[in-house]
Amino acid sequence: MFEAFQKYVNALHDAVMKAPDILTAVGKIADEANDVAKYAEPQFERLDVMQKAKAVMNMSANMKIVTSMPGQIQEAIEELKADLEQVKDSGMEIKNNAMSFKDNGGKCSTKNITKPLECYREIYGPIKYTREQRTAWEAAMKERFKAKNATFNPANYPTTDMIQ
Known about the structure:
This protein folds into two domains: 2-96; 128-164, no CATH class. The protein contains six helices and no strands. The chain has helices at residues 2-33, 36-45, 49-96, 98-110, 116-124, 131-147. It is elongated, with a radius of gyration of 26 Å.
């Protein structure tokens, strides 16, 4: 599992490092797309009326997609950078708390607790939260699941530690 995580981190780092070059290349494509009509004029003139109408519609749709690509790639770059920062922060947290993780893991192992949530509750107690926090969490989870074309059902997650 560690090897897979290491590959993920390396791939994430490589993507962040290569992203500016990709953004530059896509920007050039978007700029060049504006010149396509000029270079296609001789071929366009040979088309009949229906073919011209279809070509204009297709060109319009393609131009919309191509010209939006730099913005989409910039958004992806920002998300990749945020993911990389989160991995770095998590790594530092693990490094700074390695001994307590080991001690706590030993305590849970001694009590035959194998699930992370159960171990957390054993060490730190219940995870207290308010109705407002729960509502915000449910909304965020629904969005995450929706982005993955999945369904989030809050009823699958008990509210036993909620502060009333």
